[in-house]
Design brief:
heterodimer, A: mainly alpha, MetI-like fold, 80% helix, B: mainly alpha, 75% helix, 0% strand
Chain lengths: 260, 294
């Protein structure tokens, strides 16, 4: 049966290679000196320098970052309060709220987005930066609640009680005990929300106004119009780099917190 | 004012229930306004309770639902969406099970292998789909290799076919199957396998009569995580598929952003949600599981 195990192992690593292949190829050909997507003719930053002269790309990048930052702040503040309520207090209806939190995660994003579009239209909310931010923060807050709840559940209440016994008031206890202990969880939640918002395409396209672009929208419309191109490879590689960086930091923060 | 603030703070200190409500309030209020209210409006729209000028009128009717049912091709697209959803789920079980089993039971470095599988998940959905377009396109790597090896003479047109949609779906959703299955198989009690073998069961019958039945909750959880988003997929059929692979998400998109018929779009969208909820209920009942372990 050793052979069987070996087949299992080969299969797993074969699939693993297939998972990475498209991304590696995309990155590889973003450094190609010519337009070819099959033959590598030489290393160059040509597509990147073209990219960073593109005003549309800069505008979209600026929008993506500012939206993601605003979404992160709103989501984490809301989630921090809510997760605390969910973990520390037990009341009837609590399990209902637990279930409610998962609905925005489970429902197809496109149905949620068009409901939001109708809502914005009916109340006459101007479309642009804030409509996109407020739309993203619904999934942002729910994901942040899920992350933070797990962190708070592992939190020892006795440390807070000790601080209170030693004469700290609630505010001191919160800022000097609770917040520092929860920090890794808060950072992890913030990084997750940032990447989710930074990468979002469907909700943004429903809630943005005319002329408001984010990076995923630029990527989508050029992929839709012109298919695969080295310039778009460069833009995608850049965007991938941002997600990778944030996710790696998130993993690192959580790991370190666990070992401490 | 200061007097009132002090009084308020003492009351909050004493009443735990009030603390609970105050903590919950901001997020609940937010979700009510930007998540629940939009769906209430969508429901009202689907029942024709708004005028074209976005004014509320009490004229409930089923006409947009009837319209949706009579819409040419909508049933086909419904069935096609389910078909793609089921096919993707099946593909992910077949590919994902051996992987999850290997990582959970056989691998010596599970954390590392698991992490290697998770990294592509950090890339956004759109980017993964775009990256795959590069491989599948007529001037892409796959055709380049096949042409170079002289297996084919003309580049294959893989893009804009159902095959391309299925490949991309499996590529994007495989992990949603592997992770819950891994979580399930990791808890597998090795002594059960020893017991089976002591009692004379071979490796194959141990797998089908012990391991597989025990991993059903993992398969159920993974299937739901794959089936729901796959059925509602928009980006994949839009970018790597063509008009003959369009799914429900694409129809909702077209009806909403191009024909701007909010009534019809709302009706289709709500039918879609009801359908997904029904599938989940039936599935969970059939699988005999009340709670899905993630």
């Amino acid at each position: 049966m050793k052979i069987f195990d070996r087949i299992l192992k080969s299969f797993t690593f074969f699939i693993l290679i297939l998972m990475y292949l498209p991304i590696v190829i995309m990155i590889f050909f973003s450094f190609n000196s010519t337009k070819s997507l099959v033959r590598f003719t030489g290393f160059s930053f040509r597509w990147y320098s073209e990219l960073f002269q593109d005003k549309i790309v800069w505008g979209a990048l600026y929008n993506s970052i500012t939206v993601a930052v605003a979404v992160t702040v709103i989501s984490v503040v809301l989630a921090l309060l809510m997760a605390n309520a969910m973990v520390r207090y037990e009341y009837k209806g609590g399990s209902l709220i637990d279930a409610f939190i998962y609905i925005p995660i489970v429902i197809p994003e496109i149905t949620e987005s068009l409901a939001l579009l109708i809502f914005l239209g009916v109340i006459g909310f101007p479309k642009g930066f804030w409509s996109v931010v407020l739309g993203h923060a619904t999934f942002g807050a729910t994901f942040a609640v899920v992350v933070l709840r797990a962190r708070i559940a592992g939190f020892r209440k006795s440390v807070e009680e000790a601080a209170r016994t030693l004469g700290a008031d609630e505010i001191q206890t919160f800022f000097r005990i609770t917040l520092p202990i929860l920090m890794p969880g808060i950072i992890a939640a913030a990084l997750l929300v940032f990447t989710l918002s930074f990468d979002d395409f469907i909700k943004t396209s429903f809630t943005r106004g005319v002329g408001f672009q984010t990076l995923p929208l630029v990527i989508y419309s050029s992929a839709k119009r012109g298919g695969v191109s080295p310039g778009l490879n460069a833009l995608s590689t850049f965007s991938f780099g941002v997600s990778l960086l944030f996710s790696a930091v998130r993993l690192f923060t959580l790991r370190r917190a666990r070992y401490e | 004012m200061a007097e009132f603030a002090r009084k308020f703070i003492t009351t909050v200190r004493q009443k735990k229930r009030l603390q609970y409500i105050l903590l919950l309030l901001p997020a609940m209020l937010y979700l009510t306004i930007f998540f629940v209210a939009p769906f209430v409006l969508t429901t009202l729209y689907s029942f024709n309770m708004f005028t074209k000028a976005r004014q509320f009128t009490f004229t409930p009717s089923f006409r947009w639902y009837l319209h949706a049912f009579q819409m040419e091709g909508l049933l086909t697209i419904f069935l096609r969406s389910i078909g793609y959803g089921l096919a993707t789920t099946l593909l992910c079980v077949v590919l994902g099970y051996p992987i999850a089993y290997y990582i959970a039971v056989k691998s010596k470095y599970r954390d590392v292998v698991l992490l290697l599988f998770m990294v592509p998940l950090w890339v956004s959905f759109l980017l993964r789909t775009y990256a795959l377009m590069g491989i599948l396109s007529s001037s892409g790597l796959l055709n380049g290799i096949l042409l170079g090896l002289r297996i084919i003479k003309e580049p294959l047109e893989i893009l804009r076919t159902p095959t391309a949609v299925l490949i991309t779906m499996a590529y994007n959703y495989l992990l949603f199957m592997v992770l819950p299955l891994y979580a399930n198989l990791e808890k597998l009690d090795v002594s059960l396998l020893e017991a089976a073998s002591t009692l004379g069961a071979g490796k194959i019958s141990t797998f089908f009569r012990v391991i597989l039945p025990l991993s059903i909750p993992g398969i159920v959880a993974g299937s739901l995580l794959v089936f729901i988003p796959a059925t509602g997929e928009f980006i994949i059929p839009d970018l790597v598929g063509g008009p003959d692979t369009y799914m429900l998400g694409n129809v909702i998109w077209l009806v909403f952003l191009y024909t701007r018929n909010w009534f019809l779009g709302s009706a289709i969208s709500l039918l879609f949600i009801l359908f997904i909820l029904a599938i989940i209920m039936v599935y969970l009942k059939y699988a005999g599981i009340k709670e899905v372990a993630f």
